[in-house]
Specification:
The protein is α/β, with parallel strands linked by helices and 267 residues long. Helices cover 27% and strands 22% of the residues. The chain contains seven helices and 13 strands. The strands form four sheets. The chain has a seven-stranded mixed beta sheet. The chain starts with a strand and ends with a helix. The mean pLDDT is 97.
Length: 267
């Protein structure tokens, strides 16, 4: 008899049949157990400048070993990494790495100004088990840990991740877009607050998309909501370029970013 499970890792709370996967393409029902199906399956591995995460005020000038897998619990039509985030892994070449192997590689790169490990490129928190296992080992070795995330994960899971993560970049999508991308704005804000309270360094990114979330009023309101959590939170306003299913819009005008920066600075 097939046993259905309900995945409580993110706010989608998917009901998953035996042998099937949730919307994220990461969580699967294996024998009635909720399994992380991308555990250690690496699609991308690079030594990046820390500023590329982007983290501008966390060990600036350093590098960090950055890795990603496949899958994501959101379905943004403008995704910049859609080739891996929208995949279930069957159409990708992956390399299987253990947490020990990742940490060992990070240590080998210390002479190249590497400070630790960043989980990025796809959505790392939905496959949180690999993040936790690797970060715990990294912390024992004195390495820094970074998670680049959409922040749209159930708070109980996110709180676990904050215990082993030194810095987050959280990709806030906008005020009104979450219902269309199966996410939840208030969950993201709650998790930003949780990370701050846990003592992690937090920077937030808003990809500014023409006609979607590019109004001066939206930038000001997002800045206000963030300042209520912590007025020192860094907000990055980044430029949209046509990607994935959103190729009908032009790149974000630089003047829009300048205008919205001034609006955000009111808070």
């Amino acid at each position: 008899m097939n046993e259905m499970i309900v995945c409580r890792v993110c706010p989608n709370n998917c009901t998953i049949e035996e042998g099937q996967r949730g919307l994220c393409k990461i969580r699967g029902n294996v024998g009635g157990r909720n399994v992380d199906l991308n555990y250690g399956e690496i699609t991308s591995l690079a030594l990046d400048p820390i500023e590329k995460k982007p983290l501008m005020f966390f060990h600036p000038g350093s590098n960090i070993l950055s890795l990603g897998s496949f899958g994501c619990n959101l379905n943004c039509s403008f995704c910049q990494n859609h080739s891996i985030s929208m995949s279930d892994g069957t159409d990708l070449q992956t390399v299987k790495l253990t947490p020990e192997q990742v940490v060992q590689k990070a240590e080998e790169l210390i002479p190249y100004n590497n400070i630790g490990i960043a989980f990025t490129y796809n959505e790392p928190t939905v496959g949180y088990e690999f993040v936790l296992d690797t970060e715990k080992l990294a912390k024992e070795r004195g390495l820094k840990t970074v998670v680049v995330t959409n922040g749209c994960i159930n708070p109980e899971i996110f709180k676990k991740i904050t215990q082993t993560t030194d810095a987050f970049n959280i990709d806030l999508k906008g005020l009104n877009i979450y219902p269309s991308i199966r996410g939840d704005f208030e969950t993201v804000l709650k998790n930003i607050e949780t990370a701050i309270k846990a003592g992690a360094h937090v920077e937030v990114t808003l990809l500014t998309i023409p006609g979607v979330n590019d109004s001066e009023e939206e930038a000001e309101e997002i800045a206000r909501r963030l300042s209520e959590i912590d007025p020192e939170i860094v907000l990055h306003l980044t430029r949209f370029f046509p990607q994935y299913k959103m190729t009908d819009r032009p790149p974000t005008p630089i003047d829009t970013l300048k205008r919205n920066r001034e609006a955000a600075l009111r808070h």
